[in-house]
Amino acid sequence: MKEDFLHYIWKFKKFPEKDLITDNGERIAIISLGQHNLHSGPDFLNAQLRINDLHWVGNVEIHEKSSFWYAHNHENDPAYSNVILHVVWEHDIDVFNKNNEAIPTLALKNIVHSETLLSYNQLLYGNQKFINCEKQLEAIPSFFIDRWMGRLYIDRLQEKSEFIIRELQQCKNDWESILFKMLLRNFGLKINGEAFFEISNKLPFLVIRKNSTSNFTLETLLFGVAGMLNDESVSQYYISLKKEYKYLEKKYTLEQSTLAPEYFKLRPYNFPTIRLSQLAALYSKETNLFQQLMECDKLEGYYKIFEVSASNYWDSHYTFNKESPSKREKKTSKQFINLLIVNTIIPLKFCYGNYKGKDATEEVLNLIGGIKKEKNSIVESFENIGFDVKSALGSQSLLQLYNEYCSENKCLHCEIGVKLIR
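The structure corresponding to this sequence follows.
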């Protein structure tokens, strides 16, 4: 029996309140269940109970077995000194607090409503292929799911905001620098995201800002710090980059990244060479990029800003020295720009709005609602079990749902799971 299910039972009183008896025969009347504590310490705070004829105010701790009290060393922890009731599934041992006072124990095993147990077992232990509730979703109204999806997306943005704020502190509140870091990370996509982010840690944005008038210099800096200019080459372009980087490396005391960009499993258009060249083109084209992006409120405006091409050398190359059979301009696609908007611009807008004391929720919801849904195995699996995904708002919400709830079996923390059991 999982502890989060016991939390659910207590929180929603899935047991008969009348004639509750502790393990040693004391009568219990619940006045207040207490506040659910999701942090360290007792599970429910400031509960109020009447045990026999005494009114008690304190905390409630919940375990699968009463012996877990000692397994978790609660008897020596001052945070648990005000526990007035120990709620367990199975009572296997008497427990005492640090003052050697007996703690009343309520065992749930034989008093929980049978239909609650049945619903719980069907949800978590049915014959599912993808997620626990896939066969029961028809019982949930669509408006309820839509409301939960909206909340999940805001949760996702808040989590990303925490990352942005941490990085902002490292960058001494320079929002342009944070934008550079996030763009680098997302130009690298999933496979090269961390390697590209490492470049941003080695290459101060101040250096980018000082050299933004030269596309060649920006390419040199990005390729050089990425460790991509260490080979021998007969290409004049490569030789020029390598010579320029030796000068810049000494001038700015630069260090190379320790994470080498990957090519394996990537389509040629996503090769690190192409994406870094496109990023250089973006920063040589646009000035005050952060302010432009924060003021922009139309998708077409973002498409115009991010429509850039890799430099001419890459028209006939995907990697250094190896010429491709056909010549083609390597321009950022609309699909790629959508990913940048979803993963970089919208989180920054949301976080920057909060930073300035402005609620940007409606703006970002309208923005992501106009972007096409992402295509990946998780979203497709949700669609196969009946989810109607209309835009990137839906696909982002489902990614949050799967990663934070479904894959972790946290059904009792999910609005859909709780509604199915109730």
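Residues 306 and 337 are 7 Å apart (CA to CA).
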